[in-house]
Amino acid sequence: MTRAEEFEELRPLLFSIAYRILSSVSEAEDAVQETWLRYEASPARPASAKAFLSAVVTRISIDVLRSARVRREEYVGPWFPEPLLTDPYQDPARSAELADSVSMAALLLLERLSPLERAVFVLREVFGFGFPEVASAVDRSEAACRQLMVRARRHMEAGRRRFEADRSEREELAERFFAAFREGNVDGLRELLAADVQLVSDSGGKAPQWGRGVFGTENVVRALATFLPPFARIGGVVEPHEVNGQPGAIFRDRDGKVVNTWTLDVLDGQIQTIRTVLNPDKLGHMGPVADAWAVVREANRARRPTD
C-alpha cells in the first residue's frame, strides 16, 4: 500500500480526532491536510501509520487550539462549534462514545479543558487509544497522561447532565417538534419544551441573533410561532437533519442557500436547548451561504398583521 493509500484510509479517523479537539470543520480539515504534508515529507515509513498520523494530527490540533482559544475569548456573543452534518469515522465498537462526543453539549464541555487535557480525553476516552499511544501523541509521560485524564474526566462529569435521552426517543420527539413548528401548532410546541428551555444563537456579530437568547416556554413558543410564517412565505425551507449527532435542522432560503442550523438538546422527554448557528464563517463547508440579514429583512416585510 502506498503512503497516499494509507493516508486516505486513515483520513476519516484523523478528521474525527481533529474535529473533537478543535470543534471546527475548517480547522480540522486544515490540520488533516498539514498532517499529510508532514507524512509525505517524512524520510522513513513509520512502523504504524495509524499511530504516527494520529500523533501528528493531535499535535497540530493542540497548537491550533491554543491560538483559537484566544480568539474565542474575544468572540461576539455565544460561541458554538461549527456544525458537523456527518462524522466520517465509524467504529461499531465505540459507536456510543463517538456519537456522544460530537454533540454540541459535549463539545462545549470540552471547551472547559486545557488543550492537553482535551487531546488526552479525546484519544483515550473517545477513540480508545492506549496510554502509551496517547503519551507519544501529546509528548508527555504515561503518568502525566493518566493525571490529565483524571482531571479531564472530572471536568466533563461535573458538567454532564445525568439522564440522556436514547436515540429513538430523541428522534421521535424531534419529529413531533418540527411537525408542530411547520404547522404553527402552539400547543404542540408548548408540550414539547421544558419550562426552562433556552433558544440561543451564535452569530459572531455577523448575522442576526435573538439578543442574549430567548428563555422559558412561553417566550420560546412565541418566538418560534412568530418566526416561521414569514420565513415560509418568502420561500424559506426548514430541512430536518441530524447535526452533530443530534436532532436538528438546516434552514435554507428560496435558492437553497444555508441560512443557519439548529440542534436540539433533549432530556427527560422535553427539549431543553435549541442552539442555532448563524455565523456565516461556520456554515461555508455546508454549501453556499445566504445573507441572513437580507433574509430577515425580507421576512419582516412579508409579515402580515395577524402574524
TrEMBL record:
Taking every annotated instance into account, which residue ranges of this chain make up the domain RNA polymerase sigma-70 region? Answer: 7-69
Question: Which Pfam families does the record associate with it?
Answer: Sigma70_r2, Sigma70_r4_2
Which InterPro entries does the record cross-reference, listed alphabetically?
Answer: ECF_Sigma-70_Domain, NTF2-like_dom_sf, RNA_pol_sigma-70_dom, RNA_pol_sigma-70_ECF, RNA_pol_sigma70_r2, RNA_pol_sigma70_r4_t2, RNA_pol_sigma_r2, RNA_pol_sigma_r3/r4-like
Q: Where's the RNA polymerase sigma factor 70 region 4 type domain?
A: 105-156
- Keywords associated with the record: Sigma factor, Transcription, Transcription regulation
Q: How does it assemble?
A: Interacts transiently with the RNA polymerase catalytic core formed by RpoA, RpoB, RpoC and RpoZ (2 alpha, 1 beta, 1 beta' and 1 omega subunit) to form the RNA polymerase holoenzyme that can initiate transcription.
Q: Which family does it belong to?
A: Belongs to the sigma-70 factor family. ECF subfamily.
PANTHER family per UniProt: ECF RNA POLYMERASE SIGMA FACTOR SIGJ, SIGMA 19 FACTOR
Q: What is this protein called?
A: RNA polymerase sigma-70 factor
